[in-house]
Amino acid sequence: MDNAGWHAHRRAEKESQYYAAHGSHYGPVEQVGPIEESFIGGFYGHRPPTSPSSSIPPPIPPKDGMPYSPRTEYPPPTDGMPVPSIQQDTALPGHLRPPVPHQQPMNQPAFPSHAQPSIPTEQLTHLTAVERSKILKVARMEPHLQFMCGPLLKFDTIDSQHTWLGAALIVTADAGSMYEPHPRLSYEWDPDKLTPSTIRERSNGSRTGYPPSVQSSSSNPRNGNGHLSFDLGPHPADPHSTVLPGSPISTSASISTMADMPGPNAKREDSYGQDIWVYAGSGGTFTFWRFMIKVPLCDHEIEITYRINNGQAMNFYVPGRTQNMRWAAHSCNGFSSGINPDDFRGPGFQTGYDPLWVDLLSHHAETPFHALVGGGDQLYCDSLTREPELQGWVSKMKPEERKQFPLTEEIKTCVDRFFFNHYCQSFRRGAFARANSSIPMVNMLDDHDLVCFFDSIDGFGSYPDDMQQAPVFRHIGSRGYFFFLLFQCFINPDVDGLSDAPGKHVYQSLIFGEVGPYIRLPSHSFLVNMGPQTALLMLDCRAERRKDRICSPIEYDKVFQRIRTLPPTVEHLVVMLGVPIAYPRMVFLESTLESKFNPLVALGRNGSFGLSGFVNKFNADAELLDDLNDHWTARAHKQERNWLIEQMQKIAVAQRLRISFLSGDVHCAAVGVMKSLKASKKDADIPIGIDHRYMLNIVTSAIVNTPPPGGVLTMVNSLATKTHKTLHHADTDECMMPLFAKDTDGSSRRQNNGNLSFSLQVEREKGNGATLAYPALTPPPGWARA
């Protein structure tokens, strides 16, 4: 400690562990092991998170004035160590037998908003070994499968025959799994059974076509601080629970009910897995299994129960035939480098990733979502630069050296290893794992899904061509896109092909564009039927992106052609764009950072005055410039943006569609508005209902990541009031909606006129997982079809 260079020596010794030599074998920074069967479907055992002040997580607080259900505290599980889970078994002592879920009053929600009944561990010690084994019985798949990730659910579309189309995906370790016969997904439903949300909807006499907006119910109990609190109860695969086996642990508790009392019209289908890819790593080989699912819709919402190889029962919901889907959209599901997740971990949560996912699941438990729409950045890949084989590339200080760095087999191996491990870890973690196994996903990527290194490669595709063409850079982007298709869309282009002609691809919603300049695969957009009156366009804005272009003319043409095939019943088209299209401009900041005469950029490139962090270390441009270049409102994209908006206006008139945009990326909830320009300030606005130019851009805040700094929010807020004349030539005005205010009469707006309701759920306090709803409505088109 007396040595003046002691700290520097220790730091150098630690950093040297990340460096690799050619031909050497180094362990990855992130590597996952198989999931114990009792963990499948969510709440994979976390190691207790640490914080600077304490290594012990805070105690779980009382829920809504009631004590939290007693739970056995097991030590953190390790790979290869089985942990018991609760399963249904009717042969229990009478005093321990749980109430039968189907005896619950039909006008009450089946998922309780209070603590679940449970068995104290002390009481378990008074039972016989046989009784204890029955209570703690673990679901076993037969034949056995060794899970690495999943099950994950995907929603494709609803076809013209009113059939729900989707898929499930699991990743299994070949060592320890039995594939004779191939893995089987069994799913069942009973068209005669009504879900609690359907019963409430019918009893309230609400319109069935448009679902109510998802808001906190005033009838739910609140805790002592006045916040709505909802105990989700344990997941069926949560190993840390001693909840009674028959407790209603799903949204409608029908998993056990359907198994015990199938109705005369109950249906069951089997889907056998297709092995769509095999990953070969140092730990063995791992197979990706895809199961296609088809469910004919009924006249009301139904619950689908599914199992893999007769293992743990899971469930999801599909809408009624005449019902528009309830769906939740999210973005930015991860933390940027330098952010401490524990800062967002409120009392009772295991990690900072969980609070808002638990809030979303609580809404899902009250009124189930039919789809989970990922608007981009479903995971963050910042830690890729810590992989040992990449240190030679990362350590190059000059951009030219990094551009010319060779792509070795070692780098190729480490990139695939990172994406495989990182996806498995991220998609099987905590509350997000419960969501993606119980709400079918519809995902589109953004830059963090591809690559983002310490926030220094932000906006893949928005760099100069020579940087994007660099061998290592391009390979990382290409493999990131491949793993996005694999894990988030359940697609392998080598297996599924590159044709979107009718009947040629497993997914009907898919639209192929042009082969990208850097990705080397065509863009993958999706036009999804979300119900009789609503459609969702997931526009791929990454695969074809260049610094001066976001989407190619070929992609636009094919997307517009597909939109023209929408049935005339569709009134709302929601267009998902990863980056907002109607958002406050920062042209002055973009111009300043691009200027060759900017003294801060010059000093940063020379490393003078400690300003090296002001420039991007990958191409020596000003930091933040890559992010600004990524925006639709950037100078390089402004013409394309304006053209796209005008095309959407033409489509709105021709097909009588109310068009809305949905975005994420900026970590700041907002609503942009485009509408017809008034001839003079004295003229009244055109009524929204008949204004085909009226379009909202709903911008979601991050479901996990940190919000922008206060100074940035202040700047954006001040820019929001600025008048933009960009589209005045097209008789279009732009502004930002004053979102965080109630109606003038203080009442909440109701949906009874065909409006499409968006509800931005804003966290009340950081890390506490309780949100407040801020609604925004867009009306149906009030003009005649052209």
TrEMBL record:
Pfam families: PhoD_2. One of its GO terms (cellular component) is membrane. Residues 185-204 have a biased composition (Basic and acidic residues). Residues 40-116, 185-267 are annotated as: Disordered. It comes from the Eukaryota. Residues 314-592, 603-751 form the PhoD-like phosphatase domain. Residues 213-223, 248-257 have a biased composition (Polar residues). Residues 49-64 have a biased composition (Pro residues). InterPro entries: PhoD-like_MPP, PhoD-like_sf, PhoD_2-like. PANTHER family: MEMBRANE PROTEIN, PUTATIVE-RELATED (PTHR46689), PHOD-LIKE PHOSPHATASE DOMAIN-CONTAINING PROTEIN (PTHR46689:SF1). This is PhoD-like phosphatase domain-containing protein. It comes from Leucocoprinus leucothites.
